[in-house]
Every structure is written in C-alpha cells, then in structure tokens.
Amino acid sequence: MQQPSACVTTTGPRIAAAVGAVGPVSTVVVRDLREREGRSPRRLMFARGDVVVVSGLPGSGKSTLMGRAATGVRTIDSQDVRERWDAKAPRLLPYALYRPLVRVAHYAGLRRALRSGESVVVHDCGTQAWVRRWLAREARRRGRGLRLILLDVSPEVARDGQRERGRGVSGYAFARHRRAVGALVGDAEQGRLPAGCASAVLLDRDAAGALREIGFEVE
Prior knowledge:
Elements: E1 30-32, E2 43-47, E3 51-56, H1 62-69, E4 74-76, H2 78-88, H3 95-116, E5 120-124, H4 129-141, E6 146-151, H5 155-165, H6 171-189, E7 197-203, H7 205-210, E8 213-217
Parallel strand pairs: 1-7, 2-8, 3-5, 3-6, 4-5, 6-7
Helix pairs in contact: 2-3
C-alpha cells in the first residue's frame, strides 16, 4: 500500500520506535515505519502491562517476527497451539475435525494470559474484530492499552511465505484476510484505529526483518 507523506500524530499513549535505541514518544498514535531505507528500528518498546497484537496476512511473517523479537515476554500464537495438537492427533485425522478444539484451547490460553496481568504479545489473523475488542477491554480493565503492529506485505509475498512454511490457506480464506488486513492498514494510514486500540505501528517486510526486540518497559 502507498505510504502517506507523514506519520499521523496526536495526543496519545507512549510508544518507542527509535533506531537502535528506545525513548518515550508521547504524541505518536500511528507510526509508519515502512520504506525507511535501512533506518528501521531495532527495538519496539511498550509500557509494562500493555497488550500488543501482531496482525497481517497469512504468510506475512507474524509468527517469525514474534519468535525472533518477542523473546523473554509472554506470547500467544495460535500456530503454537495447532502444532501441539498436530503432534498428539492421529496422523491421518484431518485438521478440520479437531480445529474447533484448537481454537478453544487457544482462546482459553489467551484468557489466562490476559487475566494474569502480564504484558503479552498476541498473534492475530486480522479477520476477527471481536477478538481485538475483547483484548482492548481486557487491556483497559487493568489500566493499560491495546497496541497494534501491522505487517503490510503484498499478497504475492504472503503467498511465498505460506509456501515456505508448507501450509497455505484457501483462496476464499485468503481473500477474507486480504480485505480485513487491507482495511486495518488503510485505516491506520488515515490515523483511524479499531475501537479500543491506543496505537499502531506499520511495518513492511524489510522493517519487520530489521526488528530484533519487542519488549516492555517498567514505568
């Protein structure tokens, strides 16, 4: 998607996104870090107790980013839950038959993490708006904020990512994801955030690849 000419700012929550360093930026609501020509940040730091949601197309690199950068913090990734169930399920049992159980287990684990009050980084497919509303309510309940990290990659790059991991989605499901994620990115470019969301960071593939840490500071 086309990058706007400037980052949208207004009075809002703290989020840090400096190259090789971290510091408070009190006025940033949407920070666009795409196409920065090697000037992408190495660290994104949030306030302790925040809920950070990583969203993007299937194959855009959400799980890879979380696995590399969100070390030492609590992460919730539905792919991890699926892999645990895959390991226990009979080899010939189709995933579609136990997918509802995987989803229940994922949301149960997410609920426990939210209720614990810990800072948490959550994998989000982008199509379930009710999940973001739920996460926003839980963040507000403990006096913290919901923060989005949006991976903006082309459908072709996302499809390549699916092939690399050996697990794709149907054309119908991918079209749903494209609409949902496209709307999220488009709204962020205009300074509009989902209900209850406090801030967003836009990353392209290069910026996501440069990121080495997603963490939380003690206020």
